[in-house]
Amino acid sequence: MVFLTTTVLFGPTVYSRLQPATIYIWVAFLGAIGAGVASIADGYWLVWVGYSLIFGIANGLGYGFGLQFAARANPNQAGLAMGVVTASYALGAVLSPYGFDVALTYGGFFLAMAALGSVVVVVSIGAAVLVARSGVKYTDTQAARRVTHLPVELIAMIWVAYGSGVAAGLMAIGHAAEIAATAGFAGWIAAATIAGFNLVGSLLSGWLSDRISHRHILTTLPVIGATALLALAVLPEQTLVLLGVVGFAYGGTIATYPAAIANLFPGEDGPHAYGCVFTAWGAAGLVAPWLAGQIYDWTGHYTTALWAAAALGILSAVMAQKVIRQR
Length: 327
Description:
It is globular and about 50 Å long. The protein contains 12 helices and no strands. α9 runs antiparallel to α12 and α10 (239-264) runs antiparallel to α11. The protein has helices at 2-10, 12-15, 20-39, 44-73, 78-134, 152-173, 176-182, 187-208, 214-232, 239-264, 269-299, 303-323. By secondary structure, it is mostly helical.
C-alpha cells in the first residue's frame, strides 16, 4: 500500500513523458520482475523487495495511469470511464483470491507468485496493444497548463474529506468477515456481498458524476454509509445487506472523487492533485482497519468501532459540502 500510494502520488511526473503503450510495457516488466523475485524468496525481506516494492510500483503505475488515461480518452464520459476503472480494480480483488487459492493448493507460494506475474504480463501487454491501436494520446494540448503550486489549503481539505470517507468504509470492510461471523453469517459471504455492491457503487456513481453535481454525490454517499454503519450496531439480522450498503458507498466514493478533482483542477493539474489526495486512501488503508481492531480489543465488540466509522462518514459529508464545487 505504501509503494502503490507513493507511485500514484509521483506517477503524473512520467505520464506525459512516455507513450501510453510504453507505460503498460513498464507495468508488465515491473510486475513480472516483482512477482518473480517474490516467488523465489526464502524469507520475508525478499518478499518485501519483490512484492511490496517492485510489484507495488507496478500496481500503482497501472492503476494511477489507467484512471487518468481513461478519462482523457473519453472526455464526454470521464466520470463513467473512471468509474469503470475503479470497478475493474475492485473486480480484480474479488476474482484473484480464488486463483491464488488454487495456485497455493497445487504449487505453493512459488506458483501463486509466478501465476500473478504471468497474468499481469499478459494483461499489460494486451493493454499496451489496445492503447496503441486506439491512437489516443495522454497529453492534451488544449488542456490548461499545470500551475507551479497547487493550493495547499484546498488540497488538505479535500484530503480530509476523501480520507474520512474511505476510512469509514475501510473500518467496516476490513473487519467484514468477523462482523458477519458475530452475527451468524459466513465471512466469505460478507466479502462477496461487499465486493458486489462496491462494483455497483463505482459504476453507478461514475455514470451519475457525468450528469449531476459531484457535491451532491459526495455528500449523499457518506451519509448513506454512516446510516448503514449505525444500523449494523443494532440490526445484526441485516448485517449482510448493511455491509453491502457500506460497500456501495465506499465504491461510489472512490469512483467519484477522481472525477470531482479533475473538475476542480483542469488539465495537467488534475493528476497531480489526485496523486496528493490519494495519499489519504493509503493512510486510511493502513490506519482504519487497525484502529477498528484496536477498538474491538478494548471493548470486546464492534459497536464503538462502527460508531467511530459513522462519525468519519459524517465528517466526510460535511467537508465535501464545503470543498467540492458545483459542476
